[in-house]
Amino acid sequence: MEVDLCFVMDCTGSMGGHIEGAKNCIKEVAERMAKMEPAIKIRVGFCGYRDHCDNDDRLQIFDFTNSCDEFKNNVSKVSATGGGDAPEDVLGGLNAAVHMSWRNSIRVLLHIGDCPPHGRRYNNASDDYPDGDPNGLTAECVLEEMRSAGIHYFFGKITNETETMIRIFKGIIGEFLVFDLETAKPDDLVQKFTEAACSAITAVTIRE
């Protein structure tokens, strides 16, 4: 069984209380999957997103690798910084992840975030881009391309601010598993996150 697993994560300042736990979990998942070879051969990738005001730091992408050590070193470089208003460049992050070098037949994307994309359809909070993504991305175009590429989407929920986003996403691509990371304390987050990633891969392999 050959798997591509991509973590897409909000890396703005609001994630400061969660990002170390999430990073540790991502590294633990990579180690656990590496130990499952040769039954499962896995390549792991990462796409961190912030917001449009962060310019060159808006996206932080580490393409797929089958080296656990390389992946852990890459993820160690990620920090929670930047972000302006409450919404973030969620669609930009997902779009960038869709265009990474997916290769294996089983493709799993685990998205972790605490805020929705830009646009009135997602939130009533202060939004520098109330009309939606300034680059013209829509959830419909990004998620349909994701589905066409055979990428299975899963979400790790940290706050209730993403409830409307989840509902809209499900209306586009149908049901997907949402893992509740909201109530996890930092010490518990690693375990919950690891369980989420493993459950996502299991769910896809059963479907396949």
Shape: globular
Alpha-carbon Rg, integer: 16 Å
Q: Mind telling me which CATH architecture this is?
A: 3-Layer(aba) Sandwich
What is the arithmetic mean of pLDDT? 86
- Main sheet, how many strands, which sense, barrel? 6 strands, mixed
User: Which segments are poorly predicted (pLDDT under 50) over 5 or more consecutive residues?
Assistant: none
Q: Assess the beta-strand content as a share of residues.
A: 15-25%
Within the CATH hierarchy, at the fold level, what is the topology? Rossmann fold
Q: How many distinct beta strands?
A: 6
| Number of separate domains | 1
Give the % helix.
25-40%
The termini sit apart by: 11 Å
CATH secondary-structure class: Alpha Beta
Strand order of the largest sheet: 3-2-1-4-5-6
Tally of helical runs: 6
The fourth-level CATH homologous superfamily is von Willebrand factor, type A domain
Which structural class should the secondary elements be placed in?
alpha/beta
SSE pattern, N- to C-terminal: EHEEHHEHEHEH
Summarize the structure.
With about 210 residues, the protein is an alpha/beta fold. It is about 40% helix and about 20% strand. It contains 6 helices and 6 strands.
List the helices and strands and how they pair.
Layout: E1 2-10, H1 19-35, E2 41-49, E3 59-65, H2 68-76, H3 90-98, E4 106-113, H4 139-148, E5 151-157, H5 163-173, E6 178-180, H6 186-207
Parallel strand pairs: 1-2, 1-4, 4-5, 5-6
Antiparallel strand pairs: 2-3
Helix pairs in contact: 1-2, 1-6, 3-4, 4-5
